[in-house]
TrEMBL record:
Lineage: Bacteria, Bacillati, Actinomycetota, Actinomycetes, Pseudonocardiales
Chain intervals for the UniProt region annotation (Disordered): 262-286
PANTHER family documented for this protein: DNA POLYMERASE III SUBUNIT EPSILON, PROTEIN NEN2
Keyword Lipoprotein appears in the UniProt entry: no
Gene3D superfamilies associated with the record: Ribonuclease H-like superfamily/Ribonuclease H
Keyword Hydrolase on entry: yes
Assigned keywords, A-Z: Exonuclease, Hydrolase, Nuclease
SMART domains given in the database record: EXOIII
SUPFAM superfamilies in the record: Ribonuclease H-like
MF (Gene Ontology): 3'-5' exonuclease activity; nucleic acid binding
Annotated ranges, domain Exonuclease: 12-194
Listed name of the protein: DNA polymerase III epsilon subunit
Protein's organism: Saccharothrix australiensis
InterPro entries per record: Ribonucl_H, RNaseH-like_sf, RNaseH_sf
GO cellular component: cytosol
């Protein structure tokens, strides 16, 4: 139910994107980061847009598959990047100054980026990421309000931008993807005023947690059917155990959006085959 006269999307917001060494937010590392602040000082006036970006030396090799996506090689990161602990602290500190209860944070597949930043903070500084305000995830919202099943459910950032006719400039750069996420949030708020745009952002945050739980549990149920078929056909014991662990991980993370638990084999990955409950973004399977 709507409880606002004006959409939160007409006010200030921030957007976050990370490019990384690989796809596991608990194991892999940040390579680049961007925080875009969209500030509305006068209602109806053109907002001020400021972007801050970082390049990190992650301290590990960057796989060539990841370099092919975001363009940052190991040598480039070592030569021009700042030490990872410094970058992680600066990104978190900057977020703490701009992300508030009244200023939502937009991120496409927010659970990946926020979990990654949380894990990096714990790795380098022994502390977690505080959630300073509500989160708006265009991927989670789109999966709820535009359900598609099977092979047709392709939801990379580029695909979702194309559907909503949102510009995506500089794809797979942190600043380009962050700005696109903010544009998507605005477009969805306009297209779905009752379900998105006119809700208090804190209420929308809670709705997304519920939607994510439903999406992940539906995905887990499909995996359980696959597990049953595997057992019925005398599947390999190692495959059966792996799939059981994976299902347990999916159900565990269903309860924890947007900061996901480390569940080992079932841990969330950023780029997985698209499907209800799975997060689609780029190149590697879960």
């Amino acid at each position: 139910m709507s409880n606002r006269e004006q959409s939160w999307a007409l006010g200030s917001m921030i957007a976050l994107d990370l490019e990384t060494t690989d796809t596991n937010p608990h194991r892999d590392r940040i390579v680049t980061a961007a925080v875009v602040a969209i500030t509305v000082r006068v209602p109806g006036a053109r907002p001020e847009v400021t972007t801050r970006t970082w390049l990190a030396d992650p301290g590990v090799d960057i796989p060539v598959e990841a370099t092919a996506i975001h363009g940052i090689s190991t040598d480039h990161a070592r030569r021009e990047g700042s030490p990872a602990p410094d970058v992680v602290a600066e990104v978190a500190g900057h977020l703490a100054g701009v992300w508030t209860a009244d200023t939502p944070l937009c991120a496409f597949n927010a659970a990946f980026d926020l979990t990654m930043l949380d894990a990096e903070l714990r790795r380098h500084h022994g502390r977690g990421l505080p959630l300073s305000g509500p989160v708006v995830d265009p991927l989670c919202i789109d999966r709820r309000l535009r359900p598609v099943s099977g092979w047709q459910d392709k939801r990379t950032l580029a695909d979702v931008c194309a559907h909503y006719r949102v510009r995506l400039e500089g794809a797979h750069t942190s600043d380009g993807d962050a700005i696109a996420a903010a544009r998507l949030a605005w477009a969805m708020a306009k297209r779905y005023p009752e379900a998105v745009g006119l809700l208090d952002p804190r209420v929308l945050h809670r709705h997304q947690a519920d939607w994510y739980r439903e999406q992940e549990n539906a995905y887990a149920a499909r995996q359980e059917r696959k597990l049953g078929q595997l057992i019925a056909h005398g599947g390999d014991r190692a495959q059966v155990d792996w799939l059981r662990d994976r299902i347990a991980g999916i159900r565990a993370r269903a309860e924890s959006w947007p900061l996901l638990p480390d569940t080992g084999a079932g841990a969330a990955h950023r780029r997985v085959p698209p499907g209800p409950g799975a997060s689609a973004d780029s190149y590697a399977p879960c």
